[in-house]
């Protein structure tokens, strides 16, 4: 809401409260910068008239993916083989590394620590020492 539309009594009340009164002559619009200036330039009539070159900017669909007919095979580029083996090879290597990674969960550590302490106190028998009684 601009201050020029504020009723006279409201601005008078603001000045009585100690708020500075801003007159409409002091209000300036900020300069257009960046994207706003670019959009304003695009909407000017001189640029719009010269930009339309009366050409068809639409390519009708041919029905072929990347313009290659289905009967032909696409030409292989030099980087495709390296990319294929590099991508899927590293994917396979990551799967193997994930399958053989060590178990570092807190639950496994706590179970091993509890078992070690119970064996040290003699509550659990030591699984390494096998005693055979018949």
Low-confidence stretches: none
- Overall pLDDT score: 75
Q: Give the ordered list of helices and strands.
A: HHHHH
- Termini separation comes to 98 Å
Radius of gyration: 39 Å
How much helix is in the residues?
Answer: 40-55%
| Main sheet properties | none
What's the tally of helices? Answer: 5
The beta-strand count equals 0
Sheet/helix structural class: mainly alpha
Question: Your description of this structure?
Answer:
The protein has helices at 8-16, 35-42, 45-51, 78-99, 106-121. The protein has 134 residues and is mostly helical. The termini are far apart. Complex I is composed of 45 different subunits. Interacts with BCAP31. Keywords: Electron transport, Membrane, Mitochondrion, Mitochondrion inner membrane, Respiratory chain, Transit peptide, Transmembrane, Transmembrane helix, Transport. It is a single-pass membrane protein.
